[in-house]
Automatic annotation (TrEMBL):
UniProt-recorded name of the protein: methylmalonate-semialdehyde dehydrogenase (CoA acylating)
MF terms in GO: methylmalonate-semialdehyde dehydrogenase (acylating, NAD) activity
A single BP term in Gene Ontology: thymine catabolic process
Phylogenetic classification of the source organism: Bacteria, Pseudomonadati, Pseudomonadota, Gammaproteobacteria, Cellvibrionales
Family indicated by similarity: Belongs to the aldehyde dehydrogenase family.
Length: 501
């Protein structure tokens, strides 16, 4: 399928696609070729103001739209997303460099959240208790809050926007999406399909830009809450600025995910899963396994892990033999390469070095080959930082207790897994580990949408997490009503008392 991408990505304001008047344009490039696909504008101050005003005005009517009507729009939307699944995946490949299979997974995981939003009637049910006192009943209802905004990263341009705006809008809010400026074409197509599904004008706005545009959303009084996925440094700014301006904020940020390998685990399953979770998506996902914690005799398996990793390579999106694609841009590639060099300088043993990776036919691609370090210690920069590339660090320990202590001392708590044949070891690990998402013989424990994405500690800032029931609570407010009605005899007796007085 060939695409004729626009020379400039449009904004979506007041229910209309429109060219920005901004003179500040950012090129969007194919990471495998450096070909400029389009340009994305940094929305002007007036355009930002109009988007926020439109969302605020539309909320007045959208909040009173019947819940089944909202659910039907989501049902139609998930149908359209499925019909255009492969098309969306191919657009995504062009601007992210992901392999086609990886891109299809990106799209489908987003569709699952939209399917969850179709259940919005049951998700927003309140609670009732009769006779909390004589003839007095008490009940709660959930109500939308107003305008929410979402700021999304480059690495999942389909899934993460779909984490946000469908649930927020299904709850009765309106939404402003600020996608990553590095890959805005996929979100644009998502919004076109949402419009086709019957979404009323104004319930969803799309603006583009950088820090200036984000700060407008963080400080504007009409914006009631912010959802963010991205780096820790940016997340800290968003959380501090948003909460300082009395907004609800949820920030899913940095990670350093460990896989504990016990000696009683299935060796081949461990190796296969480490290759996929450590190097898949070029390591550019917040749930990637980047640290292997080898316990006891499992340390002897690392040479076999190296042999399997040597069999895979990066490549173009339509290469069926490619295990993963390029880094998103040259700066990201240079950052990964700098960490590889730093690891060597720090004394880690680089048993597999992907620094000089090339791909035939794509000399300008942002390629990094599979890389493995052993003899890694927790004071090394390659351990302390989220490299966000296809780099595995191996840390050796003698016992499961040491592994748990090591992971709990890491500031992040996004995801972790343990591979073992022991139910006792698995239970101990699940109970004692201070990480929000735990896999047992599962390498990347991302929950399905009826649960929530529950990173802990340094990996999350806020109170309610993404998707699932927690997201519904984030996007709504609870109103509690205490109610009493008099029957005729009570009302007559009350009137008589008042008359006698």
């Amino acid at each position: 399928m060939s695409f004729n991408f626009p020379s400039q990505v449009p904004l979506f304001i007041e229910g209309e696609w429109q060219q920005s008047q901004s003179k500040q344009l950012i090129p969007v490039t194919n990471p495998a070729t450096q070909e400029v696909l389009t340009q994305v504008p940094c929305a002007t101050e007036d355009e930002m103001a109009r988007a926020i005003a439109s969302a605020a005005e539309t909320f007045k009517s959208w909040k009173d739209t019947a819940v089944p009507v909202r659910a039907r729009i989501m049902l139609k939307y998930q149908q359209l997303l499925k019909e255009h699944h492969d098309e969306l995946a191919e657009i995504l490949c062009q601007e992210t460099g992901k392999t086609f299979e990886d891109a299809k997974g990106d799209v489908f995981r987003g569709i699952e959240v939209v399917e969850h939003a179709c259940n919005i009637a049951s998700l927003t049910m309140g609670e009732t208790v009769e006779n909390v006192a004589r003839t007095i009943d008490c009940f709660s209802v959930t109500q939308p809050m107003g305008v929410f905004a979402g700021i999304t990263p480059f690495n999942f341009p389909a899934m993460i926007p779909l984490w946000m705006f469908p649930l927020a809008i299904a709850c009765g809010n309106t939404f402003i999406l600020k996608p990553s400026e590095q890959d805005p074409l996929t979100p644009t197509r998502l919004v076109e399909l949402f419009e086709e599904a019957g979404a009323p004008k104004g319930v969803l706005q799309v603006v583009h830009g950088g820090k200036e545009q984000v700060d407008t959303l963080l400080t504007h009084p009409e914006v009631k809450g912010i959802s963010f996925v991205g780096s820790t440094a940016v997340g800290e700014h968003i959380y501090r600025t948003g909460t300082h301006n009395l907004k609800r904020v949820q920030c899913m940020v940095g990670a350093k995910n460990h896989m504990v390998v016990m000696p009683d685990a299935n060796k081949q399953q461990v190796i296969n899963n480490l290759v996929g979770s450590g190097f898949g998506a070029a390591g550019q996902r917040c749930m990637a396994i980047s640290v292997v914690v080898a316990v006891g005799k499992s340390q002897e398996w690392i040479e076999e892990l190296k042999a399997e990793a040597q069999k895979i390579r990066p490549g173009a999106w339509n290469d069926p033999e490619a295990a993963y694609g390029p880094q998103i841009n040259p700066q990201a590639r240079d950052r990964v390469l700098s960490f590889i060099e730093k690891g060597k300088q720090e004394g880690a043993n680089c048993i597999l070095d992907g620094s000089d990776c090339t791909v035939d036919g794509f000399p300008d691609g942002n390629w990094v080959g599979p890389t493995i370090f052993t003899n890694v210690t927790t004071d090394m920069e390659i351990y302390k930082n989220e490299i966000f590339g296809p780099v595995l660090c191996v840390v050796n320990v003698d016992t499961l207790d040491e592994a748990i202590e090591l992971i709990n001392n890491n500031p992040n708590g996004n995801g972790t897994s343990i591979f073992t044949g022991s139910g006792g070891a698995a239970r101990k690990y699940k109970h004692e580990i201070l990480v929000g998402q735990v896999g047992v013989n599962v390498p990347v424990p991302v929950p399905l949408p009826f649960f929530s994405f529950t990173g802990w500690r340094g990996s999350f800032m806020g109170d309610q997490h993404a998707y699932g029931k927690q997201a519904v609570r984030f996007y709504t407010e609870t109103k509690t009503i205490t109610e009493r009605w008099f029957d005729d005899s009570e009302e007559a007796a009350l009137n008589m008392t008042i008359t006698m007085k």
